[in-house]
Write a structure and sequence with these properties.
The complex is a heterodimer. Helix content of chain A is 72%, strand content 0%. Chain A is mainly α. Chain A has a single domain, classed as Ferritin, CATH 1.20.1260. The longest helix of chain A has 30 residues. Chain B is an alpha+beta fold. Chain B has one domain. In chain B, helix 1 packs across helix 3. Classes of the chains: A mainly alpha, B alpha+beta. At the A-B interface, loops of A face helix 1 and helix 3 of B.
Chain lengths: 168, 99
């Protein structure tokens, strides 16, 4: 359906709203990873710290990718406020478990925007979101793999486990 | 910035390719498309369930900046909902010249 605002924007307004929510989720995830990186860095868990610093950058890049897409499609990207970032953790394993939960949350939110794009025939947004759907499979897999390391190396010193954390 | 004004009737219409006119009682506010998007975002925030409930339990009034802070408008809750409906009409209804 061609609406009165079609010449100004190609993105569907409901998809735009969901993508703005997604920007906020990605930026919150970035800030959350930064808190995780700091916890690890302070305890000289260097590989884990490096892993989370990289994750923080990646999440921000994802947010920026969506931000630019919304504006390019004629919409209005909203710079989100990031509040209530948890900085308290009990163990390295619990951090990675939180990280997996966070990634699953991001995936579900991407699915929501993807489904809406499909529902309202916003093909450009659907195609754009396809990359994120695939990316999230990889993101979740990496964290699951790390949690497997904890199970396989149960009882080993934390520093040895940290050395097995992938940094690239 | 124009004076604060209490509003009665609300009407939003596209007047050119990229200009919109928001008529609030006797006041006419011209909006560019980015200004309309910004207004939609503000109105949607104020009409979310939690915020609306707070407003109803509080002063029952909302102050809204419009057109890059050129105008400041005072709305009560029914007017705010009326404005939201007007904006949604522009965003979701088919344009007669396109069909």
């Amino acid at each position: 359906m061609l609406t009165a605002v079609r010449k100004q924007m190609s993105i569907h307004p409901e998809v735009m709203d969901l993508l703005n929510e997604q920007i906020a989720i990605e930026m919150k995830a970035s800030a959350s990873y930064l808190a995780m990186a700091s916890w690890c860095d302070q305890r000289s868990l260097t590989n884990s710290a490096q892993f989370f610093y990289r994750q923080a950058e990646e999440e921000r890049e994802h947010g920026m990718k969506i931000f630019k897409f919304v504006n390019e499609a004629g919409g209005a990207a909203i710079s989100p406020s990031v509040a209530d970032v948890n900085n308290d953790f009990e163990s390295l394993r619990s951090i990675f478990e939180s990280s997996l939960e966070q990634e699953i949350g991001v995936t579900q939110s991407i699915y929501k925007a993807f489904k809406k794009s499909r529902q309202v025939d916003d093909f450009a947004s659907e195609t754009f979101l396809q990359w994120f759907v695939t990316e999230q499979v990889e993101e979740e897999d990496v964290v699951r793999g790390i949690i497997d390391i904890f199970d396989l190396m149960e009882g080993m010193p934390l520093k040895m486990i940290d050395e097995k954390i992938p940094t690239e | 910035m124009n004076k604060v004004q209490e509003v009665q009737e609300i009407r939003l219409e596209a007047i050119t390719f990229c200009k919109y006119r928001l008529q609030i009682a006797n006041k006419s506010i011209l909006l560019s498309f980015p200004q309309l998007l910004a207004l939609r975002n503000q109105v949607n925030k104020h009409t979310s369930h939690e915020v609306l409930e707070q407003t109803i339990n509080g002063s029952n009034m909302i102050l809204l900046f419009m057109a890059d802070r050129e105008h400041l408008v005072l709305l009560d809750v029914p007017q705010l909902i009326g404005l939201q409906e007007e904006i949604e009409t522009i965003f979701y209804l088919a344009h007669p010249t396109f069909v």
